[in-house]
């Protein structure tokens, strides 16, 4: 009983900490993007609120929160409200199964992962797939042709790329023989970079596929057709404002972080050091516990940087190119990757 | 171990002729065809003669059989086996001898016919089957010959197949014979059922082994055989085909429908006499049929004007005599008459053929007359034959017919009546034969001397002329035989030694031993007296004919009377059969079967099923409304039904 | 606290019955299709419950096959629906009766 | 714990299903169905089928139902119209449903003792177990099913393609 | 080595050929079919050459492989004396069918020859299958090509309805057959003929006697329709009338008759014995009925159809009389009937090619124009009416004499059919061939050519060979049929004594 209570309390604590950190990270990812894109476009980006514009996310949040919540008269009200909630909820759920540090137990509770699930990877995929509804419903319930078209595009795009994404991780799963994310990371932890799936595991192709599909899943450039301002005004966002818009906005950036985290876990050794056991542990138990968290955050940060970098660099795809790329290139490539990996594993077993 | 007589060769010789002519005759020159057609029967005849010379060194009956059986199933088998005894030998001589003569005659007669090769191949085929029939050592092989000669007869009657009447006649002959064969077949089934074999020797041995076996099944078998015999030998009630068979070429009539094939019935009864001896009822039936046929056919013959039809009815009548002889269990007499009849009737036909030939195909006696001078050879040979058939001493017919009448007179089972009718018939015979004789050869010529186109191929006949020597030679030979052929059976009562009777005696020995109706041996005096009486009857017949036809050769319209009308229309028998059997059968088939059963029941069932299926489909079609929700409902209902069955009716399966 | 398997089964039966009912009374062809999916899911639940009861994975495997078939069915079915809609311009099953002779 | 979860998600299931039945608009029905399926996934988890639960979410909720929603959006399906056959369907459907439920539930209820009961964590079918059965014992059906789905894909492509 | 696989080859090759014909250019279709069927005939001759004539009972050239485990369906093929000759017969008739269709089938040649070859497979299969399910598969397969051939290549517009009639008549009882088979399987757990025979032995008094009765009747019905037996011949007239000659040759008779013998009499001896009086009566009715109907037809093909009914009924009579002689005769008569009727249909086909009609009122005097055709026709006719020294006589004689002691009165009635057959056949010959050419101008045409002679003469030769050398064929038949007779005798003996007691007379007449 006591044990159960402790478990509940510690879990609630973990959830609270992770959620706060995650939401903060989301907010600052927005800032990061604006700053970086500004630099790429040879301008400053936000710099007025706070030092280096560091308070800008707070100001943005305040603005959106205080803005009048417009409810267009023609919308399907329940769904119109439900859609951003679904989107955000799904975006925030995935983090629950991700390990972000060593398996260090306190009172028998793993402190660096909210829930260790045998089929953790599947949970992430499942939650991601549920997230589609947010976009789909928003477009439909808005009762606006731009919204509908945007959400149709987005839905089609997400369904299409989800296949490639799902297939790309199979190589990793094959190597590991488990769907447990900790198992996956542990396999990559031994020799640092050399044992990461992306490199030592020779899943570089899968990594590439995952990366591309992840861009598409999050509707980021160069796959940001659903909200292409110049064509669809703003896609499924069009009718949304204030907090509801903020939820979509947050969901998008949360998804970016999610995707980055998953990529880190699957391909880049997760919280493990890039040097593996090259350097013996230094520092005390605190360092021992927190250093993996640092590595994890650093790798995810690299991804976010990449996201922004790509956004600032690449042009947008045409819609048919997008579909063609997904179905005719990525999907066969992913299948080939699965086959090759399977064969290699079968031979070297 | 007796050396082989190579009996198998005997039928195969004509068969070879048939095959050669049948397959390639169309392309061979006529002379070649004739050579083939004559050579093989001649060879067969020669072999028969050779057998005659050898026969004293053989134990008769002599059986030869092939190593391989013909039919062999569990419980029954039949061999290709040939039997040679005195009876067979006599038949062989007649068949090959007379057969060869008629072949020879045909070479002249058919010389200008289309399908010459076909004719001779058929004739050879006939000989093949006839020899098979005669030689057969079991019922089944006999039946092969039996049907086979029927086939040959069918083909030859229908030789002029473009003539509807000829084709019809052939068909009629075959079918009527088939009715007889029906009896024959049933007889064989009975034999198999009761004896398990069809071999003559085994069957007869089985019968003689049981002295008490009499009547019953044997009568049944015998009567069925008689049915067969009446068909083949043109007796009442199945004689109707023979007059029509005169549609065939005349040599065919001579060979098949006078000398050989039609006597097969008599031969068969003689061959199976063991059966008949044990069943007096059957014998009585045979005698009755024979007498009735003899009389009846004679009366019809009196009124016929077609020369060949007169002879046809005469044949029927004479066959009746043979039946009568068999019916009174004097089989050897029957066979004797068979032999003499073969001589004179063949001669009569051939001579008639010569006349027809001379007249360019004319067969109606009313358009003949006065041919005595034009056709001297024909006339004289014909005269011999007429005297023979009428039974004038010392011609062949006298001996055989006289013997039959005498035996009949002595027979215990109603012989007197048979005798009386037979005697009257003898008179009638003389009457119609001399009528024919007078109408053909005497009086003023009534024919027109012009080429007749009616008879195909005789367009060349400019004027009436005697036939070529190939035709006359057989006439002469047969004329001599008609005169002297009967001497072999010269009865002891008239100072002879009845060589023929003694020769055949071994074959019929059982008959005299077992038969219940033992003849009282006629005294010589009685026999002499009977001869005189029958001669007298013949003379009366001649006298009446002379009165009527020599004096008034123009033969005015005969006075109409109900009887003469009846006779002139052959007692309306053909019409009777048509009305009683054929037409009702066809009507029954058309109305009851084709009308009621086939289109009513069978097709009706079809229609009914169609309607049921249609109605059912229509009902089911309504379910296929095309409405998805109704489908859904049916689906749900079906699922519910399955569920119910699974849950609550599980005990059903 | 343990839950009797029978309850799962009764829940499954309830879902199935509702599916059947929806199958019958829905008029939109897509809704009908969805009710079929509902029935399939109800059956799946029963399978999983039985798998638990007998501690056999085969029941679950069967659910996989059902899922695959359902996926295939959805793909083809929806394609058909799209094709039908293109030609008839309606989704009401009562108006889609081309199969009527 | 188990009972509570069962009751919560079971009721969610039932509610979703009834909502599916009662909603006039297909998109609402579809969302209800998603709720049913997701709740079912939880029930699967309760029954120790964790892989299946996630597969349920990914395949049903995440793929099939997305397809439905997508098609509903694509065709812009509206409210259902009342037609002539509706009344008959209601008359047959609702009593039929109740009868069917009565029969099945009655049967299960009477047989409940033979089914036993499920405890949380008493049975867990691991991915490894599933893989063993699926790829060893049932390999052929598995392959056949893969062909089926391939054919289905081709069929869908052919059917949905616009005629040129 | 070949002994084990020869039957499989015979079944497979025509099916393969059927596919190849479809792939070849149309102009090679008939040539290919001819070569293939001739090759098959040569292959089929392997059977009599290597048949073990001293082996009594049982099957030879067997192949027995488990095909499907559950239900236990085996690929079990083999022949005994009876089926061996039937296989050879089928192989013999096939090239003739191709030859006779050479010109008459103008359009859709590939389809025609393909179906014909498929039908070959089915017939081989029916005759050699020893597993009930396998047999059923071939049985059904034999129906479809025939129906299609009649429907597509039918003589006139009503070909399709004739095909439909045939199909329904054949198919609906087949459904019953299937049900019966499954029932049998449920009871015995096997489809194998040999095992079934053992298992059903004595089952007629067992607990499932009533079911067995129904099953035997289902079997009987299916086969009797295909034979056909008297009241079930509704499809025959139209079927034969419409069928092209190559199809008419194989339409009626052997399949159903063989099946009656093998799958009814052998499988259900007791039930067959009980139903035998009915079958014999129907057979006799069929003989007379067919003959009388033939007598009043004006269409030659229809006449031939009713003649077929009559001839088939003879064989049925032989089968259900159960004596060794009648069974041998019946089996032998199947060969005879197939050959002579085959020849008849070929000749009718030749006739139709020349004159385009089967109406006897419009034909006549053909013999004057086509003497060779007439000759062949007359020989065939003579065979059909049972002229001794030609094959049919031996068969008919054995049937009738074998049946006589069991049913004297009925057999006597059946023998009347012999008279009637002569009547209608000769009448037909007369009306078609004799007399003067009726409408002279129309009746032209050339006499039989080499191809047609090559088709017809072998049958004529066989008629004679069958007629004079029956032991050659009987040798093989005798290895199996007397056993059937013996078993039937064992089955019927108690029945007869029972009925004798009932009627108060002794069983033995002597």
Number of helices of chain B: 25
Number of strands of chain A: 2
Secondary-structure-based class of chain A equals mainly alpha
Oligomer: heteropentamer
Portion in strands of chain A? under 5%
**CA radius of gyration of chain A:** 21 Å
User: Order of strands across the widest beta sheet of chain B?
Assistant: 1-2
Task: Write down the Rg of chain B.
Answer: 30 Å
Strand pairing plus helix content of chain B: what structural class?
mainly alpha
Write the layout of secondary structure elements.
The complex is a heteropentamer of chains A (349), B (653), C (101), D (164) and E (510).
Chain A: H1 2-40, H2 56-66, H3 77-93, E1 105-106, E2 109-110, H4 120-141, H5 145-176, H6 181-189, H7 204-217, H8 229-232, H9 242-267, H10 285-313, H11 319-348
Antiparallel strand pairs in A: 1-2
Helix pairs in contact in A: 1-2, 1-9, 1-10, 2-9, 3-4, 3-9, 4-5, 5-7, 5-11, 7-9, 7-11, 9-10
Chain C: E1 3-4, H1 5-25, H2 29-54, H3 58-88
Chain E: H1 2-23, H2 29-50, E1 60-68, E2 73-79, H3 81-100, H4 109-128, H5 132-153, H6 159-188, H7 193-200, H8 209-226, H9 236-242, H10 245-251, H11 254-265, H12 269-295, H13 300-319, H14 324-355, H15 366-369, H16 371-384, H17 391-404, H18 408-433, H19 450-468, H20 470-477, H21 481-503
Antiparallel strand pairs in E: 1-2
Helix pairs in contact in E: 1-2, 1-4, 2-3, 2-4, 3-4, 3-10, 3-14, 3-19, 3-20, 4-5, 5-6, 6-8, 6-9, 8-11, 9-13, 10-14, 11-13, 12-13, 12-18, 12-21, 13-14, 13-17, 13-18, 14-16, 14-17, 14-19, 14-21, 16-18, 16-19, 17-18, 17-19
Task: Give an account of the 3D structure.
- The complex is a heteropentamer of chains A (349), B (653), C (101), D (164) and E (510).
- Chain A has 349 residues and is mostly helical.
- Chain A contains eleven helices and two strands.
- Chain A has helices at residues 2-40, 56-66, 77-93, 120-141, 145-176, 181-189, 204-217, 229-232, 242-267, 285-313, 319-348; strands spanning 105-106, 109-110.
- The model of chain A has no long low-confidence stretch (mean pLDDT 84).
- Chain C has one domain (5-95): Helix Hairpins (Orthogonal Bundle), CATH 1.10.287.3510.
- The mean pLDDT of chain C is 86.
- The model of chain D has no long low-confidence stretch (mean pLDDT 85).
- The longest helix of chain D has 27 residues, at 84-110.
- Chain D contains seven helices and one strand; from the N terminus they run H-H-H-H-H-E-H-H.
- Chain D has 164 residues and is mainly α.
- Chain E is mainly alpha-helical.
- Chain E is 74% helix and 3% strand.
- Chain E has helices at 2-23, 29-50, 81-100, 109-128, 132-153, 159-188, 193-200, 209-226, 236-242, 245-251, 254-265, 269-295, 300-319, 324-355, 366-369, 371-384, 391-404, 408-433, 450-468, 470-477, 481-503; strands at residues 60-68, 73-79.
- The N and C termini of chain E lie far apart (53 Å).
- Mean pLDDT of chain E is 86; it is low at 503-510.
- At the C-D interface, strand 1, helix 1, helix 2 and helix 3 of C face helix 1, helix 2, helix 3, helix 4 and strand 1 of D.
